[in-house]
From TrEMBL:
Source species of the chain: Imhoffiella purpurea
Transmembrane segments: none
Residues engaged in binding NADP(+): R64, D113, F114, K172
Annotated GO CC locations: cytosol
Entry protein name: Glucose-6-phosphate 1-dehydrogenase
UniProt keyword terms in alphabetical order: Carbohydrate metabolism, Glucose metabolism, NADP, Oxidoreductase
Length: 520
């Protein structure tokens, strides 16, 4: 029996009736880059196949390379159909020649350097060729190009919304620290109204992430115990078995704190901890998330020393494959002190959560991919049971990926004459109950085209996130003489991370041994 709750889409429509975006020209800055061919084009193609794009929808890619429209389309087609796990075909849905040709007819290309004013002048001219007046500018570029593009768009008048909408989508990382994020927000606000700005965090487009609020607030059973009186601690894990691929240059600058914690994990934490919003309107949701982030006091250097762990992986075996250590990866300097693993003990200083640790961890080259939120409840008084140690705490696990689902673990009496309890679980799996959802990027592109910024990050939100992260990054940078902790690739992470929880009498759930009922 499928469950009676409808979690298939945030907009309460069955997937077959997904909404249609308004006619629009989508301009992609960075059209020859990794994000465009791996995520954006496959997602747009899947939206086209599901008839979610208007007939007059157009895509204009901008890149540095000289290329004709046809050459650009052929390049994208080749990448979309190439074999391999990371080529986007899964997101695009089954590829057919007819579907691609119909979609490709909407794609064109403009070559030019972002830093050359002439590029933007030619862009403004080119925009006149397109039907309709709506435009969405997607900055699939290095963050350093964003200020220039924003300024130049305004210079040629493309920020104005006289006849239709004009929106910009900004990729993460949004700034490098609090000061740079504030500066970027200030600069954007000179030319764009906040309602035109969409700061994307692709975790917010994941179906299981969007479900967190539905699970918490759509079920009286859970929300009534969702506080410090019943919850002992919360674990948020985003473990990856993958390395950095060809993005070592970017990652060496960024590290796990800026790449994953400052955005994706902060969003998971906010969704887990926030109070009920007044509505699902963007500002109501953003207000409640910001309250959570503002309730986390920035750490002092002493707290950074005792409540954070960072580490780099050394050579090991992941999924049966021998992999080199971080310092041996191509393009990584031998002196790199970039962390590939982070664990934090964060405290939310408010009425609901006072005293409840929120443990966050993320890393590359860990034992397997596991992204989950595990909520551990207090043990009840067990005085009249002969076996007290055989009871484990109840845990609710929201499994974000892979094997998406929700699990509740509890103790049950071992059958027979035993007076012992054994841990058992109730499991809900997406697989088998729901159709495959749209990819995260498809969901968010559709939202941006429809003008719904609920699942994006508001300007004050990114600053609030950096207010928590910057003191940690600063304290780490000042510890540059201390040896960098390490962990073996394919393990659960550095042993120091265990100490972070042991101190409070808690323990991480195992990454290597994670077994899950929804795995098929
Ligand atoms: N790739 C991913 O999986 C993810 C990426 N992101 C973010 O998306 C953004 C883009 O990342 P990614 O696609 O990986 O980066 P890439 O380096 O692969 O792509 C950058 C693109 O920008 C173009 N470009 C760079 N400088 C200029 C310039 N001066 N003038 C014109 N074009 C220029 C490049 O052209 P050329 O080909 O000529 O160099 C290329 O098309 C980054 O902010 C990243 O953090 C976020 C999440 C995931
Ligand atoms: O933004 C990023 O996310 C990916 C992880 O995303 P997921 O959807 O596969 O969980 C991460 O690998 C990458 O380093 C980071 O930039």
């Amino acid at each position: 029996m499928p469950p009676s709750i409808d979690l298939t889409t945030r907009i309460d429509l069955p997937e077959t009736q997904l909404p249609k975006a308004e006619p629009c020209v989508l301009v992609i800055f960075g059209a020859t880059g990794d994000l465009t061919w791996r995520k954006l084009i496959p997602s747009l193609f899947s939206l086209a196949r599901k008839d979610c794009l208007a007939e007059d929808f157009r895509i204009l890619g901008i890149g540095r390379r000289e290329m004709s429209d046809d050459a650009f389309r052929d390049d994208l087609r080749g990448r979309l159909t190439a074999s391999g796990s990371d080529k986007g075909t899964a997101e695009a849905g089954a590829f057919t020649e007819d579907a691609w040709n119909a979609f490709a007819a909407s794609i064109s290309y403009l070559s030019g350097d972002f830093f050359d004013p002439e590029t933007h002048r030619r862009l403004a001219e080119r925009m006149k060729d397109f039907p309709g007046a709506n435009r969405l500018f997607y900055l699939a570029t290095a963050p350093s190009a964003a200020p220039e593009i924003v300024r130049r768009l305004a210079e040629v008048g493309l920020n104005r919304e006289e006849r239709g909408f004009s929106r910009i989508v900004l990729e993460k990382p949004f700034g490098h620290d609090l000061a740079s994020a504030q500066e970027l927000n200030r600069l954007i606000a000179e030319d764009f109204d906040e309602s035109q700005v969409y700061r994307i965090d692709h975790y917010l487009g994941k179906e299981t992430v969007q479900n967190v609020l539905f699970f918490r607030f759509g079920n009286a059973l859970f929300e009534s115990v969702w506080n410090r009186n019943h919850i002992e601690y919360v674990e948020i894990t985003a473990a990856e078995s993958l390395g950095v691929g060809h993005r070592a240059g970017y990652y060496d600058e960024s590290g796990a704190l800026r790449d994953m914690v400052a955005n994706h994990l902060m969003q998971l934490l906010a969704l887990t901890a926030m109070d009920a919003p007044v509505s699902l309107e963007a500002d109501s949701v953003h207000d409640k998330k910001s309250e959570v982030w503002r309730s986390i006091r920035p750490m002092t250097p002493e707290q950074v020393a005792s409540r954070t762990v960072r580490a780099q992986y050394v050579a090991g075996t992941v999924g049966g494959e021998q992999v080199p250590g971080w310092l041996e990866e191509p393009d990584v300097p031998a002196s790199s002190r970039t962390e590939t693993y982070v664990a934090l003990d964060l405290r939310i200083d408010n009425w609901r959560w006072a005293g409840v640790p929120f443990y966050l961890r993320t890393g590359k080259r860990l034992a397997q991919q596991v992204t989950e939120i595990a909520v551990h409840f207090h043990k009840p008084p067990l005085s009249f049971f002969p076996c007290q140690d055989c009871f484990q705490s109840n845990v609710i696990i929201l499994r974000i990926q892979p094997d998406e689902g929700i699990s509740l673990t509890f103790g049950a009496k071992q059958p027979g004459t035993s007076r012992r309890a054994v841990p058992v679980s109730m499991d809900f799996c997406y697989q088998g109950n729901f159709e495959d959802p749209l990819s995260a990027y498809a969901v968010l592109l559709l939202d941006a085209l429809r003008g719904d910024s609920t699942q994006f990050t508001r300007g004050d939100g990114v600053e609030a996130q950096w207010r928590i992260m910057t003191p940690i990054a600063t304290a780490w940078a000042e510890q540059d003489q201390e040896p960098m902790p390490t962990y073996v690739a394919g393990s659960d992470g550095p042993h120091q991370a265990e100490g972070l929880l042991e101190w409070n009498g808690h323990a991480w759930r195992s990454i290597a041994d994670a077994r899950w009922a929804c795995r098929i």
